[in-house]
Amino acid sequence: MTDRAPRPTRADYVAWRTATTRWRDDDAYGHLNNATYYELFDTAVNAHLYEETGVDVRALPQIGVVAETSCRYFREIGFPEPIEMGMVVDKVGSSSIIYRIGLFQGDSDEAAAEGRFVHVYVDNEHGAGQRPVVPMPDVVRAAVEPLLR
């Protein structure tokens, strides 16, 4: 018996985007390199923020830094097929957001992998090493709240 969460399906996600795979994304074993999964998670989240806020999120007085990431792998994926990335938000706090990103390739309704990605908002005025946790910008909150499930 296991307490592991069930394998996610397409119905579990709210926002979608597609990524083109590249030859270099595969590792020596012929499947997507694990580091590439994390690049896809980062791209899904930040592309959504750029599109929905209409601003350069890197230039805001408060920026989201990655505080936690993880990935559950269910089956192999890789070049040359595109990857569909589904995204949902599990929680929006005062200074943090918890995202889940499902990766799909081909016609399968079940995710090939699912990532957990946590942004914590920090002060962007004083640079690295001087960034206390602060409330997230309203423009970011407005962009992610529609993704809550």
Principal-axes geometry comes out as globular
Give a short account of the largest sheet.
Answer: 5 strands, antiparallel
Arrangement of strands in the largest sheet: 1-3-4-5-2
What's the rounded overall pLDDT mean? 95
The number of helical segments is: 2
How far from one another are the termini?
Answer: 27 Å
- β-strand amount: 25-35%
Please compute the radius of gyration using only Cα atoms: 16 Å
State the secondary-structure class: alpha+beta
- Number of distinct beta strands: 5
Low-confidence stretches: none
Order of helices and strands: EHEEEEH
The helicity comes to 10-25%
Question: What's the helix and strand layout?
Answer:
Elements: E1 15-19, H1 34-53, E2 62-73, E3 83-92, E4 96-104, E5 113-123, H2 138-144
Antiparallel strand pairs: 1-3, 2-5, 3-4, 4-5
Summary, kept brief:
With 149 residues, the chain is α+β, with helices and mostly antiparallel strands.
Walk me through the structure.
The protein has about 150 residues and is α+β, with helices and mostly antiparallel strands. Helices cover about 20% and strands about 30% of the residues. The chain contains 2 helices and 5 strands. It has a 5-stranded antiparallel sheet, with helices on one face. The longest helix is centred in the first third of the chain and has 20 residues, at about 35-55. The chain is globular, with a radius of gyration of 16 Å. The chain starts with 14 loop residues before the first strand and ends in a 5-residue tail after the last helix.
